[in-house]
Specification:
Blueprint: H1 5-9, H2 24-30, H3 38-58, H4 62-78, H5 85-92, H6 95-110, E1 132-133, E2 137-138, H7 147-152, E3 156-165, E4 176-180, E5 201-205, E6 211-217, E7 222-223, H8 229-236, E8 242-243, E9 246-252, E10 259-265, E11 284-285, E12 288-289, E13 298-301, E14 304-306
Parallel strand pairs: 1-5, 2-6, 3-13, 3-14, 10-11
Antiparallel strand pairs: 3-6, 4-5, 4-9, 7-8, 9-10, 12-13
Helix pairs in contact: 2-3, 5-8
Bound molecules: benzoic acid (BEZ) and fe (iii) ion (FE).
Length: 309
């Protein structure tokens, strides 16, 4: 039941008639049967209380509720294996970043507090099955005479580092480093009809020193897609849509917990107002000029620490 101002002032002692049926939420919660799914049985009372309290608190009307249902339906209709609009709506509301924080803290507590590389959200543009390549390969697949490549050329970067064990500091050999990033036009390859399939995606196995290395690009900031409900919502909330320039990583190794994360270019102007709230200080990195390498103008070194499971 929503607490009215009068009740707050009288320290909860109910002196006014509640605005809405005070028994309604309890009735809905009590409808759950004895054979309900155990996790749902545990969490649904809380969800229902928050949901109903929200509706009562803001005096939600039928028209407003229907607008929200339409938005969710439209997000579902727009979603397919190349686009997850419903995920995007959650992202701009901070839900994926919050759930990511909760999940990593639960893991941290279960592991007795060992500090792995901080996580960041997977986002909607991950694709399974990126090419598995030898270290030092180039994941920039665009043809060198294309417009796309001309835009990308000044951003060519060498990216390398080591995967180590949190508890021993020793290298983790055979770890899989799976990474992806947007092109210089701010689009991922599946959004960009001018980019080759699997452009700027690759998987690399660490060597005996735990080292991975590849050629890619210094990343470019991009706005989240604006042509659907998430974009509409950003506009209605008078919010900026950009994500700071970043590279996504999923690092896995046998016997270790996986790390899903992103690293962010320290020169980006949107580090403070990421539209999906994913930036963490430990994930901000510096690209440095690369000398004497005709294949790259920039260099980034970033190490990953994994926890044993
Ligand atoms: C991304 O980083 O790819 C991303 C994350 C959340 C929403 C949109 C894009
Ligand atoms: Fe991204």
């Amino acid at each position: 039941m929503a607490v009215t101002r009068k009740e707050e002032e009288t320290n909860g002692a109910s002196s006014v008639k509640p605005k809405y049926d005070p028994d309604f939420t309890d009735k809905v919660i009590a409808a759950t049967g004895p054979n309900a799914h155990p996790r749902l049985k545990q969490i649904m009372p809380s969800l229902l209380r928050h949901l109903h309290d929200f509706a009562r608190e803001v005096d939600l009307t039928c028209a407003e509720w229907m607008a929200a249902v339409d938005l969710i339906n439209e997000a579902g209709r727009m979603s397919d294996d190349k686009r997850n609009e419903t995920g995007l709506v959650c992202d701009i509301l901070g839900l994926e970043s919050l759930v990511d924080e909760i999940t990593s803290k639960l893991l941290l507590n279960a592991k007795g507090g060992s500090i792995a590389t901080p996580s960041a959200i997977l986002g909607p543009f991950y694709r399974e099955g990126a090419p598995l390549l030898p270290n030092e390969s180039n994941i920039l697949l665009a043809a060198p005479d294309s417009e796309w490549y001309k835009q990308a050329e000044p951003l060519r970067a060498h990216i390398s580092g080591r995967v180590v064990s949190v508890s021993t500091g020793k290298p983790v050999a055979n770890a899989m480093v799976d990474l992806w990033l947007a092109g210089p036009n701010g689009l991922y390859e599946q959004q960009d009809p001018t980019a080759p399939e699997m452009n700027l995606r690759g998987r690399f196995l660490t060597d005996d020193d735990g080292r991975y290395a590849l050629y890619a690009l210094r990343p470019t900031a991009y706005p989240v897609p604006l042509d659907g409900p998430a974009g509409q919502m950003l506009q209605l909330l008078d919010r900026q849509a950009y994500r700071p320039a970043h590279i996504h990583f999923v690092v896995t190794a046998e016997g270790y917990g996986a790390v899903t994360t992103q690293v962010f270019d320290d020169k980006d102007v949107h580090l403070e107002d990421d539209s999906v709230f994913a930036v963490k200080d430990e994930l901000i990195v510096q690209f440095k000029p690369r000398e004497g390498d005709p294949k790259a103008h920039w260099t980034l070194t970033y190490d990953f620490a994994l926890c044993e499971v």
